[in-house]
Records
---
Amino acid sequence: MADRDIGNRGTGSDDRPQERQRFKKLAQAALNADVTVDQVESILVDLGDVLVDMNKTIGGLDGAIDTLDSTLSRLSGTLDQVDSTVVAMVDVVDRLERVVGRVEILVGIGEAAMRPLGAIESAGRSVASRLGLLS
């Protein structure tokens, strides 16, 4: 019996199914790794396309930001002009208010000057009507 045990160990008849199973597992792992590598390569190719498109989009966004910068600069310049125009308009309104004040004074003087003429006219009408010159 001892010979049989030694003989079985020496030939490796028990080890063969284990080695086959091990080779099958290694072959399956290699196939799985190959499929995984193919999947990763496919993802990387798709990712490359996405990155190219993203680069184009970012380039367009950069152009839009540059345009926005120039637009904001022009808007700022326009607002500065509006501010200076408002200051000038305040000066014009102040001058017009002074002119209107002077005109009001002149109208008041004219009205005061016309009062005696109105009184003379009223007196003249009164005399003319008493004399029968006015009907």
---
Amino acid sequence: MKIMVVDDEQDVQFLFEQKFRRELKKNLISLDFTLSAEEALKKIQSQTKLIECLSLILADINMPGMNGLQLLKIIKQNFPNLKVFIITAYDDEDNYLIAKKYGADEYITKPIQFDKLKEKIFSA
């Protein structure tokens, strides 16, 4: 299962690699990291092999430039079967409603409870 993590904070990569180290060692998942929604969209649109093997996108809402909700909307318009989980530090009802309207498969608030996230990933 290939998962793309989209977050402008560079330390997120280290955190996810630590929290998923067992799954990574067992080759249950592979992680691809991008630091912006624009970079994620460019990768998805330009690498046809990536979209064929990509199972899930985990996207932060608050990023400079294009935010996670805008990315969600574009992805769901172009790749409706691709699962997208939105992650946010703010439990904001408006963002939740927009995320659901745009087709988010999950809405997760920080701090991330990785046990619950793993359950959602592997049951999706």
